[in-house]
Specification:
Number of strands: 13
Helix content: 40-55%
Order of helices and strands: HHEHEHEHEHEHEHEHEHEHEHEHEHEHH
Distance between the termini: 51 Å
């Protein structure tokens, strides 16, 4: 383990204009309470975009979107996909493999920005370095911290690292916990979190997915299924280096046993994954290595696929709604609800295990997707409206006092 990661484990818990409507609301009423939404990665942005849109539509709020600089260009592009821009972009940290250094830089930058903007409420999402640094910085400045996608847990306090480590510590700084599932709510209540601070809303990523699926369904001549395509994404820290080799070797074995299959791989820019994928798979005619895709384009391709192989958390949520089987090469998951749907299967990162499970999933009959309804595993696609109702009530409290 890198020295920086070990140091981070030991830290103490104490330790652009969006729309004309928003601009009008700022000038019309100086008493509106400012809400800052912080995004640092592409997945965060996808899950925050519907929340930002919902905030903008509420005349009593003053949302400001902050690009933390963690993955500044990816966030900028993702915001643009949803018709948004950042109001402020913080300075990117110098490239460093030291996680502690990167988190400290993010926290200092965010804290400085919060001193300038003085928000009432700060929204962070998920389990990234930005979410953790943002929660710490906001709590230190006396802001209300609202954590979106709170309460996810694996059985192991430090696995996967750093995501599980971050999400548990964000809980200690958060005032409001927006949980996506009853299970995530139960996790927080079991840890002693005030029930009044926990709000079951659903997953905001499903809001974005529902919007895209509706758009794709309305397109004439929409692409049909691709019964021999496998979509693959890899990016998790636990699958860097040796594990990336193992997964690539398993995919090569799968291709040898099923030469009818084609493989689509949007390659993550992290060189510790990208170089190994390129070396292992780049020359194989059945593998198409492409740059990271726009969200809408990836959803369209994933929905057509016969199988997805991915270590992504977000895709675990999306696959059941797409009706596509998903194989997750990880030791554990913080999303047991996905496993319960039968669409998602966890597999050890072992070459023979990945091939065996992939062949089994490919051989099974196609199932109907999960519908966007009250009983859906990650909500009905209307989580953002519920979140903004709570935020609006919080923002009004000082005015009513």
């Amino acid at each position: 383990m890198a020295h920086g990661e070990e140091g981070l484990r030991q830290q103490s818990l104490e330790a652009v204009d969006l729309t004309a409507a928003r601009a009008d609301s700022r000038s019309a009423n100086p008493h509106y309470s400012r809400v800052i939404v912080i995004a640092g990665t592409r997945p965060e942005t996808i899950k925050l975009a519907p929340v930002i849109h919902a905030l903008v539509r509420r005349h009593g709020l003053r949302p400001l979107v902050m690009n933390s600089g963690q993955h500044a260009e990816a966030v900028r592009r993702s915001l643009e996909e949803f018709g948004l821009n950042a109001d402020c972009t913080l300075e990117s940290a110098h490239s460093s493999s030291n996680l502690s250094t990167a988190v400290r830089h993010l926290e200092r930058s965010i804290r400085s920005a919060l001193l300038q903007y003085r928000p009432r409420i700060v929204l962070v999402q998920g389990d990234t370095s930005t979410a953790y640094a943002g929660a710490r910085a906001a709590a230190a400045q006396g802001c209300l911290v609202a954590h979106i996608e709170a309460g996810l847990r694996t059985p192991f306090a430090a696995e996967p690292f750093p995501e599980e480590w971050f999400r548990r510590r964000i809980t200690s700084h958060a005032d409001i916990h927006f949980v996506p599932t009853p299970g995530s709510r139960d996790n927080l209540l079991a840890e002693g979190v005030d029930p009044g601070a926990v709000h079951l809303v659903g997953n905001t990523g499903i809001d974005s997915l529902r919007q895209v699926i509706d758009e794709l369904r309305s397109e004439p001549g929409r692409q049909a299924r691709a019964p021999y395509q496998v979509a693959v994404t890899l990016h998790r820290r636990e699958n860097w280096d040796h594990n990336a080799d193992v997964i690539c070797d398993a995919l090569l074995d799968l291709s040898a046993q099923r030469p009818d299959l084609s493989f689509l791989l949007p390659v993550h820019p992290n060189p510790r994954v990208a170089r190994r994928i390129a070396r292992k798979l780049g020359a194989h005619p059945c593998f198409s290595l492409v740059k990271p895709m726009r969200y809408r384009e990836f959803v369209a391709q994933a929905a057509r696929a016969a199988l997805i192989v991915s270590d992504s958390g977000g895709i675990q949520e999306e696959a059941p709604y797409l009706g596509v089987p998903l194989l997750v090469p990880r030791s554990c998951t913080e999303r047991p609800e996905a496993l319960a749907t039968g669409f998602v299967r966890l597999v050890d990162v072992r070459r023979e295990s990945i091939v065996r499970e992939a062949l089994d999933l490919l051989a099974r009959p196609r199932r109907q997707p999960v519908s966007f309804g009250p009983g859906a595993p990650f909500g009905d696609g209307l989580a953002s409206a519920r979140i903004v109702e709570v935020i609006e009530a919080l923002a009004a409290e000082p005015l009513a006092a």
